[in-house]
Amino acid sequence: MDSVGVFTIGELARRTGLPVKTIRFYSDEGLLPPTDRTHAGYRLYDTHAMARLELVKTLRELGLGLPDVERALTSEASLGELATQHVEALDEQIRKLRLRRAVLRAVVKRGSELEEVKLMNKLASMSDDERKRLIDEFWDEMTEGLNIDADFEAHMRSGKPELPDDPTPEQLEAWIEFAEMVQDPDFRRLIRGLSQQQSDMLDAGEKISPGPDWMDWFERAARMRTSGVDPSAPEAQELVEEMLAAGAPEGQDVRDPEFRAAYAERFGQGGDPRAERYWQLLAVINGWPPIESRQPDVQWLMAAVRVTP
Questions:
Q1: The CATH number of 6-73 is which of 3.40.1160.10, 3.40.50.720, 1.20.140.150, 1.10.1660.10?
Q2: Residue 303: what pLDDT?
Q3: Of 150, 139, 155, 156, which is closest to residue 192 (Cα–Cα)?
Q4: CA–CA separation, 242 vs 257, rounded Å?
Q5: Which of 22, 55, 145, 276 has a Cα at 20 to 30 A from 80?
Q6: Start-end ranges of CATH 1.10.1660.10 in the chain?
């Protein structure tokens, strides 16, 4: 520093810890105009310039690009406005980094191949809106042109995947499996078939099963199954006839073998493990309580329905 309080680029570099090349670049870009020059043409900077350089250094360390730094220095935008924008950008960057970390953890756990890794990263990088739109489009196609019970459809559409910003490997794996499932042609045929089945029943004036007692029936079936009650036992058949009567057209004999066989067919389709898996995966993704499999109870009830009285 000379007697009038000015600094050369080399002195600024020593005081700020920035490379001479970087300071010269800032000066060339107009972020740090020289205060004066020596007779030989070397740039000189005063204490105000040093303070300005320290601010530039701080803003750059915080990740602001040169255009934003220039806007702050020229007061085109307040530092608070720029900080707010930068916080939002950092939040998004952190979200993406967390997802990448979760993808890599899932890769290690699954031993994934290259193509699967690409798909996993693509699915994990989807925004909340993109994930919800994927499900809305799925149900649009599954119900298009069909007569679907409004409450039932609203319930099915209500389950939206909401992956946390910092998902666990299990949540990420569940989302990837879920996204693959709703795009799988076989699964789409299954759900479209079930939707068509419901539409046909409504068009024919039949009641929609399950009704409000459905969970109670399943609990009773589960208790009987775990207690070793045979599907043909009187108490099992009493439960089956109660279920059949709730959904049968008026005047239908619930003991009719053909009716029971048709009901068992529909019941079996509705109890497909993939339909159950849909909600189990949503529970993992959204952090809901785990949904236990009802498949043993479904199989027991199907066997009970097929019994010829």
A1: 1.10.1660.10
A2: 93
A3: 139
A4: 16
A5: 22
A6: 6-73
